[in-house]
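User: structure tokens for Oligopeptide/dipeptide ABC transporter, ATP-binding protein, please.
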Amino acid sequence: MGHLLEVHELETEFRKDDSFLKAVNKVSYTLEEGEIVAFVGESGSGKSVTQYSGLQLIEMPPGRIAGGQVLFEGEDLLKHKQNSKEIRSVRGGKIGVVFQEPMTSLNPVMTVGRQIEESVMLHLNMNRKQARQRAIELLTQVGIPDAESRVDDYPHQFSGGMRQRIMIAMAMSCNPKILIADEATTALDVTTQAQILELLRDMVKKTGTSLVLVTHNLGIVARYADRIYVMYAGEIVESGTCRDIFNNPRHPYTIGLLRAVPSLSDPKERRLVPIEGVTPDLRYRTGVCAFAPRCMYATEACFTEPSPKLRDVPGEDRHQTACHRDVDKSTVPVKQTVEAVRKLKDPRELVRQDVILEIRDLKVSYPILKGILRRKAGELAAVDGVSFKIHRGETFGLVGESGCGKSTLARTVMGLIEPTAGSILFRGNEWHQMPEKQKRSLRRDITMIFQDPYGSLDPRQRAGDIVGEPLRNFKLVKSEKEYQERVSELFRLVGLDPSLQNRMPHEFSGGQRQRLGIARAIATNPAFIVCDEAISALDVSIQAQIINLLEDLQEELGLTYLFIAHDLTVVRHISDRIAVMYLGQIVEIADWKSLYDNPLHPYTQALLEAVPIPDPEREAKRERKLISGEVPSLINRPVGCAFSNRCPLATDECRQGVPRLRPVRESHSVACFKVDAP
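Assistant: Done. Predicted tokens:
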């Protein structure tokens, strides 16, 4: 029998200035019926373009398919014109796509039901009544509650997780043979992500649909994929079964990706090993191995001989690698690599250190305005009675799903939002009650690293001016010479060449832009830095570089971090103590070891259950109990414990009373009626 999908020597190019950038370079792969295949690699590796090329979904021009075949059920899709009837019958019909950002993929002025109906009527020749019934049926299948009434709602009336479910319903509406999920869970919280992936797997198992996962999350791949294709610079550099790739990676790039990924099973002292350097400019291919400049195992042949082709790994069925050398995880690198053990602080010692920031019963509320006169009808408590302390020199992690109030809390700490009640004490001084003149003098001691490294940099300023601006604002230098020396020193501190100061932000990679943001944050010699999702937008290899940089700067400069993230593996790796937040309240606080080894609150347990581990053998043995539903809006907040409507342990007591945060063990506090002190 032939393959369901067979791609031969696919080449896709994009015109850039006066040259062509080859985004996909002679890629070949296969897909079987009912199989789950993953494409992994950094941003710009060609994962998504490879999938969209077969469906001719790339923009032409500037893009063009320069060569190759894409055989679907034996027919070459590339022989048809981009918008021909034949290719449109395949798109959305026989091959469905779930995109990364559902809000940009759904029509905001059409009801979700009508959008599903259009696809069904086009591909399955149903009438309007039949199509509507099919839409309700699909919404029910993907877990949209009360689908019969919600079918007439618009996309903005759904949460992010619900919108992604609707995208899955649309993609599955015409019973496709192949479903492509392009980073379909990247923007979702860990619990919602787990629900969506379980839903996808269950649906493809029931229908026999083949699933293509395009992702950079190796934990997801370990749990769900049957086979994996690893891509770099528009080429497949390794392919094999999930177990072969994780247990016996044979390409240096795959080995590098696995070393750069934190895991819940890691020893705490393990230092992440980033892949140094950046992906090459694909306009200037040299014909040799594209990964050689970043490779720890590269020899002279890698820089002089033609780029290696995929070859079979001896003794392993369907495992191929494209490398001149026969390397594995035990091979000694040619280049020096730093795998130093981190100097860990004992979390119990931090209690005896100075408190640099104390939050007491903090509340941040927003008015609910109703009627034509916009009168105040109530309040939404985004942060509701939060209290905790951060000690000098520690990293305090703050985790929780979207909408729990993490970023609101961060902005309030920074002084960007005024609290409704409670207090914030920085070095014992009430931060929000200070006179503006005194507050300004303290602003240099509290800085922030933002989530989006591009959006937080002025696109019209040079890199050197961006980093040096705080020096001028706070009059920290006395002369132009001192200014230039300090800016150069800051560039070196964050691992950037000072000669790059005259470049504009768009001329830097994502990781370099985040380094610029960090350089700006440390320019004033601050004592306290708020890291608000500072690494969530970065590739896994660049993420490892930034984590190591933050740890090094903390050790060198004595910094204290409030580290906000939704990736629990990263938070575990970098934090000394961690607080878990849900609907504006802290539900658990503990040192990292207590929290991960023995989580007490049902919500914390659910978060950890939902985290995928980048190890297929351990994932296969795990029995995960996922919580249903998503974080409710603050308007629909449950009476009593905020988690009671999703908690498997909830009783009438939980639905009527609000549990207070109380200590149950040394340095471990929890807000739950069902947890008793030992």
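User: Anything notable?

Assistant: The chain is about 30% helix and 25% strand.
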